[in-house]
């Protein structure tokens, strides 16, 4: 099963957390790209919420940030573990990853 289609990425309210919703990290840059674009530069666990991960990516030379919020802290840890080794990968490559082993 591909990362983008994994049931862990669908919350109980049926909100899909993938693809991430990107927000410009630079307040002077207004473009808000959508979808599986850019290169993952970092993934960070939230210190305030154990069910939240922050993603940092760069697209066309500009930095963006997104948050992934999960219903379950354990699912958040599983996704974080799978993402932390993917720094430097394109977001599309991450979406294409096989996560069948987590089912």
Order of helices and strands: EEEEHH
Largest sheet: 4 strands, antiparallel
Helix content: 10-25%
Q: Roughly what fraction of the amino acids lie in strands? A: 15-25%
Quick one: how many beta strands? 4
User: On the 0-100 scale, what is the average pLDDT?
Assistant: 93
Q: Can you tell me the CATH class?
A: Mainly Beta
Distance between the amino and carboxyl termini: 9 Å
Structure commentary:
The protein has 103 residues and is of the alpha+beta class. The protein has a single domain, classed as PH-domain like. It has two helices and four strands; from the N terminus they run E-E-E-E-H-H. The protein has helices at 73-84, 91-96; strands at residues 23-24, 39-45, 52-59, 62-69. Strands 1-4-3-2 form a four-stranded antiparallel β-sheet. It is globular and about 40 Å long.
Comma- or semicolon-separated keywords:
single chain; alpha+beta; PH-domain like; 2 helices; 17% helix
Task: Please give the structural blueprint.
Layout: E1 23-24, E2 39-45, E3 52-59, E4 62-69, H1 73-84, H2 91-96
Short description:
17% of the residues lie in helices and 24% in strands.
């Amino acid at each position: 099963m591909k990362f983008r289609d994994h049931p862990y990425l669908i919350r109980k309210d049926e909100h899909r957390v993938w693809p991430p919703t990107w927000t410009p990290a630079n307040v002077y840059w207004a473009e808000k790209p959508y979808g599986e674009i850019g290169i993952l530069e970092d993934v960070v666990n939230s210190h305030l919420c154990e069910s939240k991960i922050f993603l940092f990516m760069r697209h066309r030379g500009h930095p963006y940030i997104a948050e992934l919020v999960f219903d379950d802290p354990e699912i958040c840890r599983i996704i974080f573990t799978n993402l932390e080794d993917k720094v430097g990968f394109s977001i599309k490559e991450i979406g294409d990853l096989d996560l069948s082993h987590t089912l």
